[in-house]
Amino acid sequence: MPAYLLLLVAVLSRLLPHAGLWNFTAVGGTLLYFGARRSWREMLGPLAVLMACDYFLTVYVYHYGFHTQEYLPTWAWYVAAMALGQILLHSRTTFVRAGAATLLGPTSFFLISNYAVWASSAMFPRTAGGLATCYAAGLPFYRNDLVSTAIVVAVAFGVPVMVRRLSGAQEQTALAAK
Fold first, then answer.
1. Distance separating alpha carbons of residues 135 and 141, to the nearest angstrom
2. Element (H, E) at 109
3. Contact, 14 vs 53, CB < 8 A?
4. Helix, strand or coil, per DSSP, at residue 83
5. pTM for this prediction
6. Domain containing 95 — which CATH number?
7. How many domains does the chain have?
8. How far is C-alpha 32 from the geometric centre of its chain's CA atoms?
9. Which of 127, 167, 143, 115 is nearest to 151 (CA)?
């Protein structure tokens, strides 16, 4: 159930105006959590929901034409983020593994999405300098994605650990009082 609640938060963080919240989006952390806690078969759900969200935002919010091929790198990354969660966090979740996933998720999206923009649009010249400029233009979004993912991963994976530790401490106190 928490994975689906996080998916709802991710969708809302995409659909609601969030520029005032440092461009916060819960997508990366949610995909990592979903990959770590749900089965491969269930991963089709968040993929479909986020694909629909991309379509809705492009067509109805930004009023652009929707071209599927422009979203293939993003959608492939959605799957890769869930796979990363499955690989790093499914069997054993530690602080180091969660930190690695938090860093690898947004970094891989930054690298893939900015390369795709550079390679498929006329916004930047197709030179090494144009690629560097494209990556430099994406740095503020990368920073925001990194912070957003760190917050979601910390809450999603950290809160249950803290609850277990607090309840364990309370049980030990109760046993000691007997």
1. 10
2. helix 95-120
3. yes
4. helix
5. 0.88
6. 1.10.1760
7. 1
8. 6
9. 143
Q: What is the mean pLDDT of the chain?
A: 91
Per residue of the chain (178 residues), give pLDDT as tens. Answer: 889 999 999 999 998 875 556 678 999 999 999 999 999 999 999 999 999 999 999 999 999 999 999 999 999 999 999 999 999 999 888 999 999 999 999 999 999 999 999 999 899 999 999 999 999 999 999 999 999 999 999 999 999 888 888 887 666 666 666 6
- Alpha-carbon distance of 107 to 174, in angstroms, equals 46
Q: How far apart are CA 154 and CA 148, in angstroms?
A: 10
Please tell me the distance from the alpha carbon of residue 160 to that of residue 109, in angstroms, as a whole number: 27
Residue 35 CA to residue 124 CA, distance in Å, equals 34
Segments forming the whole domain that contains residue 36? 2-177
Give whole-number Cα distances, 86 to 12, 59, 69, 111, 141, in Å.
Answer: 24, 32, 26, 21, 25
